[in-house]
Every structure is written in structure tokens, then in C-alpha cells.
Amino acid sequence: MAGAAEDYSEYLGAKTARIASAEQVENYTVYVIEVTAGTNTWTVRHRYSEFSELHEKLLSEKKVDKNALPPKKLLGNMSKSFVEKRQKELEAYLQMLLEKHQDCIPKVLERFLDFHLYEIFGVTHALAEELFTKGDMILSAGEVFHMTPMQLHAISTRLQMPISPCHSEDARSDLSHVLDFVYKLKYLQVTGAEGNLGSSNISVSSLSFDMAMFKCLQQVQITQCNAKLVTGLDSLKKTLATLGVHQSTSAIKDVLIPAASSISQWKTEEETQDYLLSTVVPVWGVITTADFSHNQIQHIDESLKLIPKVEFLSLSHNAISTLDHLQHLSCLTHLDLSHNNLTTVDALHTKIGNVKTLNLAGNKLETLEGLSKLYSLVTLDVGHNTIYQVSDMKHIGTLPCIESVLLNGNPVTMVTDYRTKVLATFYDRSKEVCLDGVTTSQKEQDTVAVLQAIQKAKLAKER
Question: Can you tell me whether residue 302 is helix, strand or coil?
Fold first, then answer.
């Protein structure tokens, strides 16, 4: 095999195993092994019986000498002196195996030392094996495939090395299985984590990876990664229809323009030639759904103009206080701005005039002024704001398409006869409006009719 004939030590990094300590668990001893591969370190725990199982598997593959493992001892195997002696012997055994197979570690040893979780080649070997078995089934079923930042980082790193894809004695571990799979994959979810990966010193948020290996992705969701370390995402502009990025960025442009930090001025292909000194950035011509919820975004930047066909946009659970650049999204019909820091929404029709569903829940709004000309609006959620006055409903009461309004969690809901007073502001359409998820009852309709009659009489008298 390729790995057995060539010297790849320059790219693999030194691999060592040191037994740092031994722990007594009930009636047996667990050895705590500290493994190092290049700059990565991690720990694994094994008892002697597991070392013995490893040795038998290596013997069956003729990878080790029969007498290399220290023999089992039935009596006195819990004494301190014996455990210390056994600890040194097992460490020497592991180090001998790693030195002997430095360029191409047997699969059973990779698994024993958790190389499949923390080391570049071990990670890609394990993934290749998985995809060799069920890759075609996943693709044919159209399932969302889940990957970790470590897996993508490992593949990206492997692709930069002048090493044969089949760096293993097992053809099932060939990197080509992975590359063939990701080339055809349509639905991907990448999920990271806070802090370090497992028992290792690998910071998940510091792992970079290149998405250019994917050629057919239509949907991708990235969670708990560092968007600034994700490259190649823009190579998917011709195929990607749904993009979700969560807990990964503080700026939309870091996602939509991966090279934003190196571009001082830019324009889209459709913009005028007034920007002759600007870099032309192609638009994402297929994206219709963009979800940037649960990030640390404070400002909506002009990179939104790069997703002109987006119909659904979520910016919920961020720290946005002003609404900028939304006017570039002429196709937008569903907008979620819930759980931000909005205090006002002035003249919103000049920015999102075609929106049908608008979620502004969990902000700091005191008035609905600014919503009065959203003539396409069907569903509005302004729950859990600070709206006090029933009279504030006049800003939405004449909207011709409104069908559902959520006001729960606002001080106005504490007003006596709150429901009927609010419903009355919708005039002849009051019976068609669902308030706080509850349809208007006949009794409420009758009360609303009385309130409206009183109001008309009052107006007539004033004239």
C-alpha cells in the first residue's frame, strides 16, 4: 500500500504515548494514557485486559511480536510496586508500537488510542470507513449529513498534503471515499462545541476548514464554529439555497464575503460603474432562506445585497438595535427579528414593504408606529415588548391582510377587556383576526360590535 512504501513523517508529526498515571477502580487498575500527535494531545483510559485484546488483534495481523506485551499476573497485581512496574512496561509497549508503525498506524491501534477522534489521519480514516459502508445509502435517501469541525479540518488538512489518498493498509480507509461523498452531498450540518474537543487540547473554535470540497450542497447549517476560519463557502453560490449560521459570527459579511477583511471596497455585479476601484463580488444567486439567528450580530451590514433572492431571513437572538440595508431584499416575505435590542421601527414599509410574516417579539418596542403601511403583512408577532396602550393598535388596525397578531407578554394585555378593545381597532375585520393565538369568539364579536357602535356615535356627535 502507498503508506507502507513512502516516508510521510514530515507531514504526520511525531506520535508518542505516555502513561501519566494509574487509577484504582474497584478490583482493577485503569492506566491514564497521554497521547501526542504533532501539537495535539489528549488522554485515554484503558485497563490491562484491553491492552491484551489489542495485542491479540495485532498478533492476528502480524503487527507485533508475541512476547512484546508484559504477561498477565493473577496475584499481587494491585500492589503499588507492581502497578508502577506495569505502568512503565505498558508505556514502553505503546511507544514501541508507535515507533514501529509511525507512518501507517494499524486501525486497531488508532482506535485504542483515539486517533480516530483527535488526529488528522485517524479522523479521515474513520470517516472514510463509515462512508464506504453507508455513503451511497445516505446520498440516495437525501438525508442531512452531520459532520464536525474536526472532520472538516482533517479533510482540509489532508488535501493540502502531497500524500496518497490511500494512506492506510485498509482500502476502506481511502480518503477518496470521503471526497467522492462530499462532492455529491446536498444537505450538510456542521456542529461544533464550546471549549476543547473531548479530552484533548484542541480548541474547536480555532479549527479552520475549507468548504470548497463540496460541489452540490443545497443546504448547509453551521453551528458553533468560527466563521472567519471557514473558507470556500462562497464556492457554493451556484447551488446553495438554504444557509444557516449560528453561534459563529458577529458580522453577516464574514459569512457572505469570506475575504471581507482583505477587501476595502466592493460592489455587486449589478451595481453601476461608479465604483471602478471596487472589487466585484458575485451575488449568491440561489439562496432563498438565510438564517443568522443566535449569533453576536450588532449591525446589519450591506453584504445583505449579495442575497437578493432571499425570501426567508432570520436574525433573531442577536444584538441588533437598528434596521439597515433590508431594502436590498425585494423578495423578502418572512422576517424574524425577535430577541434583539430594537426600540423603534420607523417607516418599515420603505425597507420591507412585501413582508407577509414579521416577528419582532422580545425586543424593547413601546409603539407599533412604523408598521402602518405594511400592506402585505399577514402575521405579526410583537409579544414580550413594552407596549402599554390599546390606542397603539391603530397603527396596524387598518392593514388589509392582517390575520394574526401576538401581543402576549406586553403591559397592554393587563388592560381591562384587553381582547375586545384590541379587536375593536380592526373594525370590520375584527372577526377575521386571531389575537394571541385565539380566534375571536361570537361573544367577543358581539362586544366588539357594541364598542364600534359607541365609537361611531361618539364621532358623529363630535361632528
Answer: helix
- State in Å, rounded, how far the first CA of the chain is from the last one: 97
Q: Does some domain include residue 343?
A: no
User: For the segment 342-359, what is each residue's pLDDT rounded down to a tens digit?
Assistant: 999 999 999 999 999 999
Among residues 58, 85, 115, which one ends one of the domains? 115
Cell of 55: 495485542
* Eight-state DSSP code of residue 10: H
List Cα–Cα distances, 157 to 18, 124, 151, 174, in angstroms.
26, 10, 10, 15
Range of the domain at 35: 2-115
Backbone φ and ψ for 449, nearest 5 degrees, come out as -60, -40
Measured CA distances, 62 to 56, 57, 59, 143 (Å): 10, 9, 5, 40
The model's pLDDT over 238-257, given as tens digits with 9 standing for 90+, comes to: 999 999 999 999 999 999 99
Strand (E) or helix (H) holding 19: strand 15-25
DSSP E strands, 118-218? 145-147, 187-191, 209-210
Over residues 263-285, mean pLDDT: 74
**What 3-state class would DSSP assign to 201?**
coil
- Written as nine digits, the cell of 458 is 361618539
Examine the fold and report which residue of 69, 88, 115 is the final residue of a domain before the chain moves on.
Answer: 115
Torsion over CA of 150, 152, 157 and 162, rounded to 10 degrees? 130
Q: How do residues 277-325 score in pLDDT, each as one tens digit? A: 678 888 999 999 999 999 999 999 999 999 999 999 999 999 999 999 9
